[in-house]
Amino acid sequence: MRESAGVRPAAPGVAGHAAGLRPGPPDVVIGLDRVTKVHRAGATAVTALDDVSLTVPRGTFLAVMGPSGSGKSTLLQVAAGLDTPTSGTVTVGGTDVSRLGEARRTVLRRDRIGFVFQGYNLLPAFTVEQNITLPLRLARRAPDGEWIRALVDRTGLDGVLHRRPAELSGGQQQRVAIVRALAARPDIVFADEPTGALDVRSSGQVLTLLREIVDELGQTIVMVTHDPAAAARAHRALIMADGRIVDVLHDPAAPALAARLTSLGGR
Ligand SMILES: Nc1ncnc2c1ncn2[C@@H]1O[C@H](COP(=O)(O)OP(=O)(O)OP(=O)(O)O)[C@@H](O)[C@H]1O
């Protein structure tokens, strides 16, 4: 089903949100309210996000697509508290991150947000097990052994816990990165092109895993991708162009996504 979603009001589920400065309800993990982000480089100003409103309900797998330069990475950075909006409000689990200083945003990211990147970002000198638990140890939190064991079993990594990342395939490395991202039971995981470096088979396995994590564990995932086949595994795909949300596709099919991107001049 395709549904028009101008910036406001947007489609239900990934909805335009007029909550203003009120904390979002607990079932809303991420809320952007009229967010604009202007990047300045010398005398040049680029509006990367243009008055974007969005809510991401808990337990949602949301894909973000759009042509190069449409604002996907900026949306992810601002929603994850890695960058601050020029105007507007960003809430994570009801906390207004746009008003937090850098130190408190760092703590919020560490405690409540997981990240998965195209390049896995594993530490080569550490074992799989150490990579998974290191962020918790750095945060002086005791790893929840039962939870981590369940994740390791589910991802099929139980036989490789004592290997180093270089001894794993790309798909295995990405699964380690996913377990690491989930180890602290974050409110949300942001995945930036998580299958961009993988072959079709490994990519399919990683996407199946991400979808299971949402459907079976109730996790919330926002994934930026250029790949319509990857976005088709999400519950919803949000299409960006020129810093705006121009469409939201529910249960998106890859051909419909590809056609929509082509119509925007992207891939
Ligand atoms: N730090 C920055 N300084 C200046 N301009 C920036 C900066 N980051 C992004 N931009 C500009 O903001 C716009 C949106 O960029 P963004 O990286 O969010 O797009 P994107 O959709 O993620 O692109 P891609 O698919 O190529 O990664 C682009 O015009 C980009 O050049």
Automatic annotation (TrEMBL):
Stretches assigned to the ABC transporter domain: 30-267
Pfam families in the record: ABC_tran
Keyword field: ATP-binding, Nucleotide-binding, Transport
Name of the molecule in the record: ABC transporter ATP-binding protein
Low complexity biased stretches: 1-20
Start and end residues of each stretch annotated as Disordered: 1-22
PANTHER family: ABC TRANSPORTER RELATED, IMPORT ATP-BINDING PROTEIN
GO molecular function term, any single one: ATP binding
Organism per entry: Actinoallomurus spadix
